[in-house]
Amino acid sequence: MDGQRNENLASTRPRPAGRRRKRGARLAAAYALQALFALLAALLAALLICGVLYVREHLFPKSGGDAQPKGETIAGSGGAETGNDPATEAGAEAYVVVLDAGHGGVQSGCAFDGVLEKDITLAVTLLAAEKLRAEGVTVILTREDDTDVSLDERCRIANDAGADLFVSVHCNSYEDSSINGLESYYHNGKKGQRLAEYILAAAGELGVKTRSVKDANYQVIRDTVMPASLVEIGFLSNPAERARLQSEAYQDTIAQAIADGVLAMKAAG
Ligand SMILES: [Zn+2]
Questions:
Q1: Where does residue 192 rank: exposed (0-12), middle (13-18), buried (19+ CB within 10 A)?
Q2: Coil, strand or helix: which one is 139?
């Protein structure tokens, strides 16, 4: 019996030990859960703090940034208003026009009697840029000297700049040398057409012989995403017009027509 009791005792003793183990396991699990909750709480707290800091960073510097320029303009009270205007013009209201002098470098364009299209287009484009800049327009040139720029690159420059308008300047040529006059082309919709019409009309008003506005699939007015016009400013194949296109006075008139057309477009919105 004793032996049995002993056996019983021996067999019952491990039971509490097993319970203890189970209790221990439960306790361990509970502690683990507690630790997990604590970790989650800490994580949430950290996220909350980060969130508050994020919101602070995004709210306070902005209001501070607004306050600082105001303080500056107040400090320089004399130029307070004029100080604000260029800031807004240079920012949201900047009107960006890309002027594209056709050809350049090894690409001469059409050539008659030693007169190269690339030289005439550059001269006129630089004059037009000068006039537009004087009117507060931001002008980007696809080339400023006698360099060869690919058609892809010309489009990329305009598209990357997010320009409001694009104007490409070229000279025409035709087998019939009696043909003369300025033509303007568009391809990308009504606004491009309106730009081409404004430039042609402005040229007409300045006494330039004009022909017509046409829709044409030229790459620079097809692959540019803003209203775009390609202006064939005159025929190098026509001797009289070729002579005019070489004169600075006539180049200036054509440049004025381009600038006027752009400004009319800007005013129309
Ligand atoms: Zn050309």
A1: buried
A2: strand
Q: What residues pair up with 186 in beta bridges, in sequence order?
A: 215, 229
Domain parsing of the chain, residue ranges: 1-93, 95-268
Q: Token pair 């200036």 is at which residue?
A: 252
Q: Topology of 95-268 in CATH?
A: Aminopeptidase (3.40.630)
d(CA 81, CA 47): 44
- Ligand 1 centroid to Cα of residue 76, in Å, is 50
Q: How far is the CA of 92 from the centre of ligand 1 (A)?
A: 34
pLDDT, tens only, 175-201: 999 999 999 999 978 899 999 999 999
pLDDT digit string, tens, across residues 64-90: 333 333 333 333 333 333 334 444 444
The token duo for 202 is 């402005």
- Provide the token pair at 24: 């221990």
Residue 154 and residue 142 in contact, taking contact as beta carbons nearer than 8 Å: yes
